[in-house]
Amino acid sequence: MHFDDDTEGWILSIGDAEQSHVDLNDPRRVFYEYLRRIANVVDLAGTPGTPLRAIHLGGGAMTLLRYIAATRPGSPQTVVELARELPDFVMGRLPLPPGSAVEVIIGDAREELPAARAGLAAPADVVVLDVFRGADAPQHLRDREFYAGVRDLLGPEGILLVNVGDDPGLQFLAEQARMLGRPAGPGSRPLFEDLWCLTEHSMLSGTQAGNLILVASTRQIPPEWGEALRIAGPHPAAVLDRWELEEWLESL
C-alpha cells in the first residue's frame, strides 16, 4: 500500500494490480469510475442520508464501505473477505471513519453466505459483489445457485450490484447478465425481476476490456433512476434498462 500524489489517495495493490483507492481526508471521493457508478446507485437507494444495511462480498480497502459510512452515518455494514489478513492490515493502515458499524467475516463469499444472512447488515438494502474478473472467475461464484444465495441476503426492496471486469467480446458479462435476468428454463422465473447495466459508453462496442456494473432487483428498478444515473456519470455514461440490456446482449 502506498500514497499516490497524483490521485491524492492511498492505493492498495495485490501483486501488480491496483485493487483499491482510498481518500482518507474525504471518503466521499470515489476515484475509480466503476466504483463511482456503484456509489451513485447507493445514493438513490432509500431516503438520502439515512442509514442503509450493506453487505460487501469482497472488501479490498473498503472504499465503498467508507463512502456509505460518510454519506449515511450509522449504516450497519458487513464485509466478507477471503484474504484473512487483509482487513486488519487495511484498517490498521487506513482507519475507518469514527462510528462505523462494521462486521468482518473471513472466508469464501459462497461459503459465508449463511453467516452474512445472520449478520449485522441483513436483510440488506444493498449487496455489492466485487470479487472476480472475467472468465477466470471461480465457477462456484458465478452459477445460479450462488446468485440465489446472494439474492436471499436482500430485503424486499434490496439492490444487488455486481462489478464485472471483462475482456473484449464481453462474454463473461453476457453470461452473468443472463444468469441474473433470465429464467433457468420453461416454467421457471428469473432470479431477479429487473436488471440494468451501467458502464462507460465506449464499452458498448464490445471491443475493449473494462468494467461494467449489473444492477439487479427482485422488484422493478424505479425508471427515474435512469436519468439520474446518466446525469451522475462518470461521463460519458451508458445506462441500459432491462430491455435495452437484452437488445444489446443479442448484438454481442
Automatic annotation (TrEMBL):
Molecular function terms, GO-annotated: methyltransferase activity
Record has Transferase as a keyword: yes
SUPFAM superfamilies: S-adenosyl-L-methionine-dependent methyltransferases (SSF53335)
Superkingdom in the source lineage: Bacteria
Keywords per UniProt: Methyltransferase, Polyamine biosynthesis, Transferase
One example of a Gene Ontology biological process annotation: polyamine biosynthetic process
Cited PANTHER family: THERMOSPERMINE SYNTHASE ACAULIS5
Name the UniProt record assigns to this protein: SAM-dependent methyltransferase
Source organism per UniProt: Kocuria coralli
